[in-house]
Amino acid sequence: MKGKFITFEGPEGSGKSTVIVAVKDFLEKEGYSILTTREPGGIKIAEDIRSIILDKENTEMDAHAEALLFAASRSQHYNEKIKPALEANKIIICDRFIDSSLAYQGHARGLGIDNVYDINKFAIGNNLPELTIFIDVPPELGLKRVFSNTRKVDRLDLETLEFHELVYEGYMLIAKKYKNRFKIVDGTNPVEQVVKDTLKIIKTII
Ligand code: TYD
Residue 157 in 3-state DSSP? Predict the structure, then answer.
């Protein structure tokens, strides 16, 4: 089987990470070779950049600098980890990728979705994911989950509800732009159902 590049997207507290673990488990039991990774991060250089971006002390970070750091980290991550895994015919599942930059930096920070797409094109060329699963939860519910569980709260979580509503609106614009690869799953359902719905979509490409 040829390698497949699948990404997961969603607002804060959408439960992406839990769904990814369950999906990986299920597919491995069926004999598929799965590599999971995340952004920002995934390899040392990108994890180093991640700690700069998400540091709660870095309140003065400029939006352009933020977008460029995400793109720099993505370039390293793609070339060092994702591309070789694709060439080895693995299924790569990545927690956040280019659409996070388009929604957060492009739309919510107001840099423009097309501008942020352009710097990402410089970073990773035309290597978009084949499939993107968007775990859909309203921003208010997602934030409530983040602040009531044990996950570490980072600089971007601390943005206002208004910012997170813009992120959500950005994702909806992206969904329209990339209808073919961008698939929406209802994340307000019980996790077993979310996993089931996600697997059903993934099965259409593997
Ligand atoms: P993370 O702890 O991975 O959050 P989550 O569990 O919600 O995925 O932190 C990543 C944060 O960085 C999250 O707030 C989304 C944001 N982000 C961007 O703003 N742009 C990007 O390109 C990426 C990859 C993430």
Answer: coil
Pocket of ligand 1 (CB under 6 A): 12, 17, 38-40, 54, 70, 95-96, 100-101, 104-105, 154, 156
Q: Where are the alpha helices (DSSP H) in 36-189?
A: 44-54, 63-77, 83-87, 98-100, 113-124, 139-148, 161-177
Neighbour tally for 35: CB within 10 Å: 18
Domain topology for 4-202: Rossmann fold (3.40.50)
Whether this model's pTM surpasses 0.85: yes
Per-residue pLDDT of the chain (206 residues), as tens digits, is 789 999 999 999 999 999 999 999 999 999 999 999 999 899 999 999 999 999 999 999 999 999 999 999 999 999 999 999 999 999 999 999 999 999 999 999 999 999 999 999 999 999 999 999 999 999 999 999 988 887 778 888 888 899 999 999 999 999 999 999 999 999 999 999 999 999 999 999 99
For atom 11 of ligand 1, the residue with the nearest CA is: 156
Domain ranges within the chain, ordered by starting residue: 4-202
Rounded to the nearest angstrom, the distance between the alpha carbon of 31 and the centre of ligand 1 is 30
How many whole angstroms from 11 Cα to the centroid of ligand 1? 9
